[in-house]
């Protein structure tokens, strides 16, 4: 009986994966002027261009998010998710900002960048708190604090992170190109 359930669950998961893969493939290939699929470099270029004007920051956030998703498994993904999160925050999209900043932290952790991960968790915590999601903010801040206590961090990084954790919260800094 249990084996049948596990088999059915496996088949369902496989069907969902194929469906999700097809859906993401459709989304994964934004089209350029000529109808050709845009590559990651072109999306990154368009994202950078969109950061020039404040009214385009939400668009820039979406483009950086897409570039990060296309670079999953690459250290650049963390930087792109971070830019997407900061731009989403400053364009008034707090939920997207928390999600992107959390993904930036997780991506930085994949590559062992504890300092970048802790900073992104702290920024996500700030945005979550500002958005009225105190429980989420607390969890994110705890993750940052645990990272800040790592013996793998240098003394300067640890001190800077602990200052951010213990002092009055400050908004995330705007990304630089």
How is this structure best described in words?
With 177 residues, the protein is an all-alpha fold. The protein has 2 domains: 1-30; 40-166, Serine Threonine Protein Phosphatase 5, Tetratricopeptide repeat (Alpha Horseshoe), CATH 1.25.40. It is built from 8 helices and no strands. Helix 2 packs antiparallel against helix 3, helix 3 runs antiparallel to helix 4 and helix 7 runs antiparallel to helix 8. The radius of gyration is 19 Å and the shape is globular. Residues 1-37 have low confidence and may be disordered.
Protein traits:
177 residues; mainly alpha; Serine Threonine Protein Phosphatase 5, Tetratricopeptide repeat; 2 domains; 8 helices; 72% helix; 0% strand
CATH class wording of the largest domain: Mainly Alpha
Number of helices: 8
The level of helicity is over 70%
Structural class: mainly alpha
CATH homology superfamily name of the largest domain = Tetratricopeptide repeat domain
The ordered string of helix (H) and strand (E) elements is: HHHHHHHH
Taken from the alpha-carbon principal axes, the silhouette is globular
Rg, nearest Å: 19 Å
């Amino acid at each position: 009986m249990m084996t049948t359930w596990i088999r059915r669950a496996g088949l369902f998961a496989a069907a969902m994966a194929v469906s999700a893969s097809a859906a993401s493939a459709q989304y994964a290939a934004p089209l350029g002027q000529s109808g050709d699929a845009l590559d990651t470099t072109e999306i990154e270029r368009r994202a950078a261009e969109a950061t020039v004007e404040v009214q385009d920051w939400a668009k820039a956030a979406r483009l950086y998010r897409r570039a990060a998703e296309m670079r999953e498994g690459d250290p650049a993904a963390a930087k792109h998710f971070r830019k997407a999160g900061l731009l989403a925050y400053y364009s008034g999209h707090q939920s997207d900002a928390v999600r992107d900043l959390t993904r930036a932290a997780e991506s930085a952790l994949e590559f062992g960048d504890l300092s970048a991960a802790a900073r992104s968790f702290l920024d996500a915590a700030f945005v979550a708190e500002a958005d009225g999601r105190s429980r989420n903010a607390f969890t994110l801040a705890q993750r940052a604090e645990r990272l800040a206590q790592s013996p793998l961090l240098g003394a300067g990084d640890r001190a800077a992170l602990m200052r951010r954790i213990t002092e009055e919260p400050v908004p995330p800094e705007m990304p630089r190109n």
